[in-house]
Amino acid sequence: MNAPHREQSDEPTSVSGLPLLHQTIYCSRTTAGVDEAAVARIIAEARRMNPARGITGLLVCGSGVFFQWIEGPRDNVMQLMDRIRADPRHEHVVTLSETEEVRERLFPEWDMELVSASEIRDVLIDALADAEDEKNTASLSLILEHLDAGGIAELGAVV
Ligand SMILES: Cc1cc2nc3c(=O)[nH]c(=O)nc-3n(C[C@H](O)[C@H](O)[C@H](O)COP(=O)(O)O)c2cc1C
Asked: What is the pTM of this model?
């Protein structure tokens, strides 16, 4: 008999048919020597690992700062965050938001998309325009407010 094996289809769903999604958004500082090639390796690793775990999201890297948006089943997101926190390619991991809700995925097509610091605002505005779910709308509006208030503006600044 095959060993049990977790796939995206195993994620808990509500009566509405929508998944119960855990979402973590954090930012961190890159450590010395983490250049474009290193970020490309992180993205390649993430895209290889994330589909089987039902993880989707985006990663922004600019001016020595990472900003990552991760959504998926709770246990998988928690386990991934444990590995990410211990990863020597960055430090000072600060959680900006952590939620668990029954809702649509915000970035269903992205196993882990690398978004440039200058594009993040447009990506969030597009996602807000497409969001049919009011929880998603609220969450995106909050992050956009942070962005416009300068909370994560240093992503685009020269440090
Ligand atoms: C900023 C950042 C983002 C990352 N994002 C992911 C991700 O989305 N998925 C993933 O599997 N690994 C990601 N990683 C890599 C993990 O930290 C870890 O190296 C990987 O999961 C392999 O872990 P293991 O060597 O313990 O098996 C990321 C690392 C960093 C520094």
From this structure: 0.80
